[in-house]
Amino acid sequence: MKMIIAIVQDQDANRLSQTLVKNKIQATKLSTTGGFLRSGNTTFMIGTEDEKVDSVLEIVKNSCKSRQQLVAPVSPMGGNADSYVPYPVEVEVGGATVFVLPIEQFHHF
Amino acid sequence: MKMIIAIVQDQDANRLSQTLVKNKIQATKLSTTGGFLRSGNTTFMIGTEDEKVDSVLEIVKNSCKSRQQLVAPVSPMGGNADSYVPYPVEVEVGGATVFVLPIEQFHHF
Amino acid sequence: MKMIIAIVQDQDANRLSQTLVKNKIQATKLSTTGGFLRSGNTTFMIGTEDEKVDSVLEIVKNSCKSRQQLVAPVSPMGGNADSYVPYPVEVEVGGATVFVLPIEQFHHF
Ligand code: NI
Ligand code: NI
Ligand code: NI
């Protein structure tokens, strides 16, 4: 058994949850906050058999990997008109930090 | 030292907390949500000496193990009268998922 | 890689966060509650290279270590006048419980 700890952006947490459920992989979710990124994130704890580690990592990667996204311009309501960008811009969203830890015992009571 | 991570149903968390305190076992609690079960659960992180692992597992088992419970019928107020069951039914409650992880260093500052 | 799990008093969490950011050490924070201490605490999960473990431990120690603090007397408003102490008293504040766990794999997607 291994414990997979995956820290993902909040916006990707739902997609990851649903994909895990669809694949019958049990996960426990924690609401967490990051150090550099001020924004909230979600941490998944997944206990899994050794031979399924790679497929869980693949699921996390596909649901959460860092990517560019076009963001629509926001009108500068009450904001700084100088910094207003009147066209969509690409920003990096998503990304996951994943740790695989050894487990010595696993029990279900 | 080992780290015991026990994920238990919210309804059993208080009983487990109290039994741990009574046995002078220090635990840190996290509010978590499950994957399959939509309901909330509580995760206990317990750092413990190797020779106490078994007794902590026994405490978790006794406080949280899966069991049948009689649930009183709920009147079908605004609900589906077709699915109304007018007598108590047995449902499975409780249960715990427990991981024991190795620890390389332990410090108290 | 190692996973450092540090459970610290809420009052020290901000100082620890800021020192970690200043040292470019990425951390994920969880809001937790203790077993003995009723009060809230904050748990930091820090994934770090083996050769940086000691310096992260030093940072946690310096930000959080248990110490005496003078607490101003609180007027016994609606309280128990018998137990009122009319001068500052020293109380122990802070302290951290820290675990270092082995990591088998680390990924950033
Ligand atoms: Ni294994
Ligand atoms: Ni040990
Ligand atoms: Ni390593």
Automatic annotation (TrEMBL), chains A, B, C:
It holds the Pfam family CdAMP_rec. It comes from the Bacteria. Gene3D superfamilies: 3.30.70.120. PANTHER family: CYCLIC DI-AMP RECEPTOR A. This is Transcriptional regulator. It comes from Mangrovibacillus cuniculi. The lineage of its organism: Bacteria, Bacillati, Bacillota, Bacilli, Bacillales.
